[in-house]
Specification:
With about 1050 residues, this protein is α/β, with parallel strands linked by helices. It has 38 helices and 13 strands.
Length: about 1050
C-alpha cells in the first residue's frame, strides 16, 4: 500500500497533489482494491485448476484407461490411421483419372481441330500460341500440385503409423540418430559436453515442437544440433531449460523452435477465420457462392470442414495438456501479462460453458444438410467457428507464455515423455484415439438422427478433409522453418513472406485472367501454390549460393546454414521406419505403381481413341450398312444382319411357315398370350408398348436412315397393328437416333362399329443407337461415360470398405469430383446426347415421351430420361446409377451434390422413371449399378459370353418373344444365330483400311524422302556423339 501511495504521489494528478488530506483515504481505497484483486486471482487460480483437472481427465485419464484396457489398441489405431490416409490417397487417384481423362480428351481434340484444313481450323493453337502455352501451364500447375499433395499424404500416412519418428528424432537429437537420419549433413563429433546437453536440447525442442504431436505436422522439419552450441553451456537440468526460446530468440535454433510452435496454431487460426468470413459473406449469397462449396453455410463440405477444424483443435489440446500437465499452475503463478489474464478469464467464464452447451446440443440435435439452428440467438455454424477460433487463439497465446523460463518450470514438462518409448507411444496413441473417437461419435449421431447413408457420406468427406488439413499444416510448417533459416528476425521474415504471397497471388490471378479463367478461384489457388513452391526453391538455391560465396564458410554461422532441412526422415536410415520399409511400404509402392500404370494406360487408350476418331471423322472412313435387313422369301418374315455375325430371323404368324414342324419347336416358337409368363415383367406395358416393341425400335436405330434402307417399310412390317411414323432423324456426323410417333387407335371399329367412337393415342419414342463397332468415337464415348464407376471398382480391390458404401456415397464422390473439375473449367460436358437432350426438353410437357436404346444407347436413354424427367426403357445398358451424378452436375439438374435435395432428386429421377432389361453373363452391365425397375433374364448365348454373346440385341428380342410372347400375335418364330469370328475379321479389315488411309493422308507419307533423310542424319549424329548401340554393334562385328 505504501508503494502504491508513493507511486500515486509521483503521478501528475493535480487535484490529488493539491489536496494532501486525500492521501490516507486514497491509500485505503487502494488497499481495498488490492485485496479484491487478490481474492479474484485466488478464485481465478482455483477455477483454472478445476479446468486443468477436467481437461486432464477428458483428454488423458479416460482415453488412457480405454487404450490400456482394449487389447492391441495401439496397433489397431495405427492401422486405422494408415488406412484413412491411404484411402484418401486412393480417392485422389480417382480424381486424377477423371482429370487426366478430361485433359487428354481436350488436348487431342484441339490438336485434331488445329490440323484441319479450311477456315478457322488452326485458330486454337496457331493464332494464339501464347494463350495456348499459358493454358497448358495453368493445368500443369493443377496436375503438379495434386501430385505433390499425394506425395505428402503418403509421407504423413507412414509417419502417423510409426508414431511420428521424424518428430521424435528431431526432439531427442542423439548422436546415433543424427548419424542415421538424412536431415543432418554433418555428423556430430565426439564432444564431452554433448552428452550433458542432450537433455536440455531435447527438452527445449520438445516444447517448441509440441504442436506436431497434436495432429499438427508431426514431421516438422528437423535440424541438427550445432557442434559447440551454447545451448549445452548451462548446467540446468530437469524441467528447467536454460536456453529457452524467449531468452535466446536470436539463436537460429531457438528461432526455429518458435516457428515450429507458432506456425501450426497460426494455420488453424487463419483457416478458422477464413471459414468464418466466408460463411458470413456467402450466408445471404448462396447463388453467387455456389462454386465455393467450402463456404456454403449448411452444405456438407462446410459442415465437415468445420468438424475437421474442431477435431484438429481437440488433438492439439490433448497433446498440449499431455506435454504440459500443470499448465494452469504455470499460467497463474508466473504469468503477469494482462492479455493472458484476460484470455484466461474469457476461457473460464465464457468459452468453457459455451463450448459444453454447444457440444451437448451438437450431440442431441444434429443439424444435417440445409438446416439452420440458432444458438443463443446466433446461427449454429457461426457459433461453431467463433468457439474454435477462441480456443485456438487462447492456446496460441498460452503456448507463447508458457515456454518462458519462469513458467516452464511449473508446467510439469519433462523430457522423459519424449525419451521413454512407452510414454511416447502412449501420447501418440491418445492422438490417434482422439481422431477416431470424434469420428465415431459423429458417425453414430448421424446414423441415429439422419440415417446410415447420410452418416457414411459425412464420414467419407471427413476422411478426405482431415488428411488434407494435416498435410497442409505439415507443409506450411516446413516452409516456415526453411524461411526462418535465412533471417533471424522473425517479424521481417513473416512480413517478407506475406508480401511475396500477396504478389504471387496477383500474378496467379492475372495469369488465369489472361486465359479467360480469372473467375475460377480454385484454379487461381492451384497456380498460386505452384508459384509459391517455385519461389521457395529459388530462395533456397539463392541462399545456398550466397552462403557458399561468402568468406569464412567454415565458421559456425555458415555451418548452420549448411544444415539441411528435410520434409521427413529417410525410411532406410531410421530404425522405426526401416521395420516396414521392406514389406509394408514395398507392397504399398507396388499398389501405387499399379494404379498409376492403370491411369496412364487408360489415358493412353482414351487419347488414342479420340485421336483416331478425329482422323476417321476427317477422312470419312465410315462403313455403311453395318446393320441391314431384307425380307424373306415369299414374305414369310424379315432377316436382320448385324456386322455379318449376328443374324435374326422373324417369321410372321400368318405365313405358311406356321403350319410347319419348325413352328412347334419350343426353341424358336414365340410364346402365346395365354401361356404362363416366365418373367415378372411379361405382360406389362409402358405407354401401350411392350418391352419387345422398344427392343425392335432400338434395333432399327442401328440402320442408316437412308431411303434405300426403307426404314418406314420395315417399321410398318414390325408394327402392323400400330401407325409408326419417323418424325426426325439424326444429322450427319451425330449419333444415330430417331424420333418415332406411335399412334394406337381403338374403338368401335375394332368391334365392327362405324368408327364414330374411335379414339387414338399418340406416343413419341426417341430411340438412340448403341455402339457401332466401326465408329471409333463410340469407344471413346464408352470410356468417358463410365470412367469413375470403373475406377471405384478397381479401387475397391485395394480398399474393401469401398464395396459397402451406399450408392449415395459413390454418387457423392463422383459428383464431387466433377464439381471440382467444373470449378476449374475442365468439366467433361462434350457428350453425344447433348442434341438429343435439348430436343427432348423442347417437347411439350403434356406429351407422352419415352426414350429407349440398347447398350450405349440404353445408357444414354437413362441419362436423358433422368435429366429431362421422362420415362426411359433401356435394353442391356451398362447402368448409370452412380455415374448419373456427374451428368446432373454438368447440366444443373439437381446438381448440388452438397445438398439433401440434390441427392433426393438423383434417386427419384432414376428410380421412378427407368426400366432396364439386363441378362446374366453380360459383362457390359457390370460397369455401373442399375436403378429403377430392373429385370434380369437368362442368356441363350452363354457359351459366347466373353465375345459379348449375351449383349446382342437380336438375342434379347428372341428371348423376349419366346418367354414373354407377343400380345399382338405378329410373330410365330424367332431364330438367332451368332458367328463372332466374322465380326473379328470384319473389324480387322476396317482397322487395316483405316490405318492405310491415315498413313496415305499423313504428312510423313507426303514427305517420306525428307523424313527418311532427317532420320538418317539424326541417327548418324547420335552415333557419332554417343557411339553405336551394343546390340547392332555386336551384330555387325560378327
Amino acid at each position: 500500500r505504501q508503494h502504491s501511495c508513493c507511486a500515486l504521489r509521483s503521478f501528475n494528478q493535480s487535484p490529488i497533489r493539491r489536496d494532501t488530506g486525500a492521501w490516507p483515504g486514497c491509500c485505503a481505497g487502494l488497499g481495498f482494491c488490492r485485496g479484491r484483486v487478490v481474492e479474484f486471482n485466488a478464485m481465478e487460480a482455483w477455477l483454472m485448476r478445476i479446468s486443468g483437472t477436467w481437461l486432464r481427465a477428458v483428454c488423458h485419464t479416460a482415453p488412457g484407461f480405454i487404450c490400456r484396457t482394449v487389447p492391441h489398441a495401439q496397433e489397431s489405431l495405427s492401422l486405422a490411421s494408415l488406412y484413412v490416409f491411404v484411402q484418401a490417397l486412393g480417392l485422389l487417384w480417382v480424381f486424377l483419372v477423371s482429370l487426366f481423362a478430361v485433359i487428354c480428351t481436350r488436348i487431342v481434340t484441339a490438336v485434331v481441330a488445329a490440323g484441319e484444313t479450311g477456315a478457322g481450323g488452326a485458330a486454337p493453337l496457331l493464332d494464339r500460341p501464347l494463350h495456348a502455352v499459358a493454358i497448358c501451364y495453368v493445368y500443369y500447375c493443377v496436375v503438379r500440385v495434386v501430385g505433390l499433395f499425394g506425395r505428402s499424404m503418403w509421407v504423413v500416412a507412414w509417419e502417423i503409423y510409426h508414431n511420428f519418428p521424424t518428430m521424435r528424432h528431431m526432439l531427442i537429437k542423439s548422436r546415433k540418430n543424427n548419424a542415421a537420419g538424412p536431415t543432418v549433413v554433418h555428423k556430430e563429433a565426439s564432444n564431452p559436453a554433448l552428452e550433458q546437453s542432450i537433455s536440455r536440447t531435447a527438452s527445449a525442442t520438445s516444447v517448441s515442437s509440441a504442436p506436431s504431436v497434436a495432429g499438427i505436422p508431426s514431421g516438422s522439419p528437423s535440424n541438427s544440433t550445432r557442434r559447440g552450441s551454447k545451448d549445452s553451456a548451462s548446467p540446468s537440468g530437469g524441467n528447467n531449460l536454460s536456453s529457452s526460446p524467449t531468452a535466446g530468440a536470436s539463436k537460429p535454433q531457438d528461432l526455429r523452435r518458435h516457428v515450429v510452435l507458432v506456425t501450426p496454431l497460426l494455420v488453424l487460426v487463419l483457416l478458422n477465420i477464413v471459414m468464418l468470413v466466408g460463411q458470413l459473406v456467402c450466408e445471404d449469397k448462396i447463388d453467387e457462392c455456389r462454386d465455393l462449396i467450402f463456404f456454403h453455410p449448411t452444405g456438407r463440405i462446410n459442415r465437415n470442414s468445420r468438424f475437421v477444424l474442431f477435431l484438429s483443435m481437440m488433438q492439439w489440446l490433448q497433446a498440449w495438456t499431455g506435454l504440459f500437465p500443470d499448465w494452469f499452475v504455470a499460467l497463474t503463478r508466473e504469468t503477469k501479462s494482462i492479455w493472458m489474464r484476460a484470455a484466461s478469464s474469457i476461457v473460464i467464464f465464457l468459452l468453457v460453458p459455451a463450448s459444453l452447451l454447444r457440444l451437448a446440443v451438437w450431440f442431441v440435435k444434429p443439424a444435417g444438410i440445409g438446416v439452420v439452428q440458432h444458438f443463443v440467438g446466433l446461427r449454429h455454424h457461426l457459433v461453431d467457428s467463433v468457439l474454435v477460433i477462441g480456443w485456438s487463439l487462447w492456446m496460441l497465446l498460452a503456448s507463447v507464455m508458457i515456454v518462458r523460463p519462469g513458467a516452464l518450470k511449473h508446467s510439469g514438462f519433462s523430457p522423459r515423455i519424449i525419451r521413454d518409448d512407452s510414454s511416447w507411444k502412449h501420447l501418440c496413441t491418445l492422438f490417434k484415439y482422439t481422431l477416431f473417437f470424434w469420428q465415431i461419435a459423429h458417425f453414430v449421431r448421424g446414423c441415429i438422427a439422419l440415417g446410415p447413408a447420410h452418416a457414411q457420406n459425412d464420414l467419407i468427406a471427413i476422411t478426405v478433409l482431415y488428411p488434407m488439413l494435416l498435410c497442409l499444416i505439415w507443409t506450411v510448417t516446413f516452409i516456415a522453418v526453411v524461411l526462418s533459416r535465412y533471417s533471424q528476425d522473425l517479424r521481417r521474415t513473416h512480413l517478407g513472406a506475406a508480401a511475396g504471397l500477396i504478389m504471387l497471388l496477383g500474378v496467379s490471378y492475372m495469369l488465369c485472367a489472361f486465359v479467360d479463367r480469372g473467375d475460377q478461384p480454385l484454379l487461381v489457388t492451384f497456380v498460386w501454390l505452384h508459384l509459391n513452391r517455385q519461389a521457395l526453391r529459388i530462395v533456397r538455391r539463392w541462399s545456398r549460393f550466397v552462403s557458399l560465396s561468402q568468406t569464412g564458410t567454415k565458421g559456425e554461422a555458415s555451418r548452420d546454414r549448411k544444415v539441411s532441412v528435410s520434409f521427413a526422415l529417410d525410411p532406410k536410415g531410421n530404425k522405426e521406419l526401416r521395420r516396414t520399409y521392406a514389406v509394408e511400404r514395398k507392397l504399398g509402392r507396388v499398389a501405387i505403381r499399379v494404379l498409376l500404370l492403370i491411369c496412364a494406360s487408360f489415358c493412353a487408350i482414351l487419347a488414342t481413341c479420340v485421336l483416331m476418331a478425329g482422323l476417321q471423322q476427317r477422312a470419312g472412313l465410315f462403313l455403311t450398312d453395318v446393320v441391314w435387313w431384307r425380307q424373306l422369301q415369299e414374305g414369310s418374315g424379315v432377316e436382320v444382319v448385324n456386322s455379318k455375325a449376328s443374324v435374326l430371323h422373324l417369321h410372321w404368324a400368318n405365313a405358311s411357315l406356321v403350319e410347319s414342324s419348325q413352328v412347334l419347336d419350343p426353341s424358336v416358337a414365340v410364346a402365346r398370350p395365354e401361356d404362363a409368363p416366365h418373367y415378372a415383367v411379361c405382360g406389362h406395358k409402358w405407354h401401350g408398348l411392350q418391352l419387345v416393341d422398344y427392343a425392335l425400335m432400338s434395333l432399327v436405330t442401328y440402320m442408316d436412315p437412308e431411303e434405300k434402307n426403307g426404314l418406314p417399310r420395315l417399321l410398318g412390317m414390325l408394327f402392323p397393328h400400330k401407325q409408326v411414323t419417323i418424325r426426325r432423324v439424326s444429322a450427319s456426323g451425330e449419333r444415330r437416333w430417331l424420333e418415332l410417333e406411335v399412334r394406337t387407335c381403338s374403338g368401335d371399329t375394332e368391334r365392327g362399329g362405324d368408327g364414330g367412337n374411335r379414339s387414338c393415342r399418340e406416343v413419341t419414342v426417341v430411340a438412340v443407337s448403341g455402339t457401332d463397332v466401326t465408329r471409333i468415337t463410340d469407344y471413346a464415348e464408352n470410356l468417358r461415360m463410365w470412367t469413375e464407376p470403373v475406377a471405384l471398382q478397381i479401387l475397391s480391390t485395394v480398399f474393401p470398405t469401398v464395396r459397402i458404401w451406399p450408392r449415395d456415397t459413390t454418387a457423392m464422390v463422383i459428383g464431387g469430383i466433377h464439381s471440382i473439375l467444373k470449378s476449374m473449367d475442365v468439366q467433361d460436358d462434350q457428350w453425344h446426347y447433348r442434341v438429343i437432350l435439348e430436343h427432348v426438353k423442347r417437347m411439350p410437357a403434356d406429351r407422352e415421351v419415352v426414350i429407349t436404346g440398347h447398350s450405349l444407347g440404353g445408357g444414354i436413354a437413362l441419362v436423358i430420361g433422368a435429366l429431362a424427367g421422362r420415362l426411359a426403357v433401356a435394353m442391356q445398358p451398362p447402368g448409370v446409377y452412380h455415374s448419373l451424378a456427374k451428368h446432373q452436375v454438368q447440366h444443373h439438374v439437381a446438381a448440388d451434390v452438397d445438398s439433401a435435395q440434390g441427392f433426393a432428386a438423383h434417386k427419384v429421377a432414376l428410380h421412378r422413371r427407368s426400366v432396364s432389361l439386363v441378362f446374366e453373363g453380360d459383362w457390359i452391365q457390370n460397369f455401373d449399378g442399375h436403378g429403377g425397375l430392373v429385370q434380369t433374364m437368362n442368356c441363350d448365348q452363354s457359351r459366347n459370353s466373353i465375345a459379348v454373346g449375351c449383349h446382342l440385341l437380336e438375342g434379347a428380342i428372341c428371348h423376349l418373344l419366346r418367354h414373354c410372347g407377343d400380345e399382338a400375335r405378329r410373330f410365330a418364330t424367332c431364330e438367332h444365330e451368332y458367328r463372332p469370328t466374322s465380326t473379328a475379321l470384319d473389324l480387322a479389315r476396317v482397322v487395316l483400311a483405316f490405318a492405310k488411309g491415315s498413313w496415305e493422308s499423313s504428312f510423313l507419307f507426303a514427305n517420306l524422302d525428307s523424313v527418311a533423310m532427317l532420320g538418317i542424319t539424326a541417327s548418324a549424329i547420335m552415333i557419332a556423339r554417343y557411339g553405336a548401340p551394343s546390340l547392332p554393334r555386336s551384330i555387325f562385328l560378327t
